[in-house]
Design brief:
The structure is a single chain. This protein is 24% helix and 26% strand. It is an alpha+beta fold. The chain folds into 3 domains: 34 residues; 116 residues, Rieske Iron-sulfur Protein; 40 residues, no CATH class. The chain starts with a helix and ends with a helix. InterPro entries: FtrD-like, YHS_dom. It comes from Haemophilus pittmaniae HK 85.
């Protein structure tokens, strides 16, 4: 009888150990082994002066505030703003990408900014400076008493850092036909903007004399 009880205990402990191992493996597969998820990026748009305005009151709390600007070709350019000092205003405005790990981005966990690509913890006061796994700085942004101003040209400097294309509606400057940017292979870059065409003929016409058609596209 005692031997039977001992066998039962051994079987019970063995089953418990097996369940524990399976639980750990399941946790690793479903949670721990997956990279942290980026917080949602707030969409921002350019004003008539080709600038983006971000209220300082919105971003001065020391948290990572992520934004996204959609370029003419649908490229999603992410960036974030963070106040680097707890006792004073010291803002950094940077692309949500680095030269080493690409556009995997950064997350904030337990008041630490972490590169999703390699897991490196950033020294927050150094954010805004180039080098290493630091996020790529946005150049020449401006700060007033109440807001941050970022020029279109400065955001365009980060286009090659990102790979995500968002589907948007575009218009052929020749025919005026509307289409999705992801549904045509005919496109042409001119003076910092990307134009889309419904066929190769329209692309060739525009390429030969862009200025002739730019008024139609507006």
């Amino acid at each position: 009888m005692a031997a039977l009880r001992n066998s039962g205990r051994i079987l019970g402990w063995g089953l418990l150990a097996t369940l524990t191992v399976l639980s750990v493996q399941l946790y690793w597969q479903e949670v721990a082994s997956k990279p942290p998820q980026l917080s949602e990026a707030m969409a921002v748009n350019l004003d008539d002066k080709q600038q983006i305005h971000i209220p300082i009151e919105q971003v001065k709390d020391g948290k990572l505030h992520r934004f996204v600007w959609i370029a003419d070709d649908g490229k999603a350019v992410r960036f974030f703003v963070i106040n680097r000092q707890a006792d004073k205003l010291s803002l950094a405005v940077v692309f949500d990408a680095c030269l080493l790990c690409g556009d995997q981005g950064y997350v904030m966990q337990d008041n630490q900014v972490i590169c999703v690509g390699c897991g490196v913890h950033m020294f927050i006061p150094s954010i805004g400076k180039p080098g290493g796994c630091n996020p790529v700085p946005i150049e020449d942004w401006q700060q007033t008493e109440s807001e941050i101003l970022i020029n279109r040209s400065n955001l365009e400097e980060g286009l090659n850092l990102f790979s995500t294309i968002v589907e948007i509606e575009v218009k052929d400057p020749i025919s005026g036909a509307k289409m999705k940017n992801t549904h045509t292979e005919h496109k042409y870059s001119y003076e910092g903007r990307t134009y889309f065409f419904e066929n190769e003929k329209n692309l060739d016409l525009f390429r030969d004399d862009p200025e002739k058609y730019l008024g139609k596209e507006e």
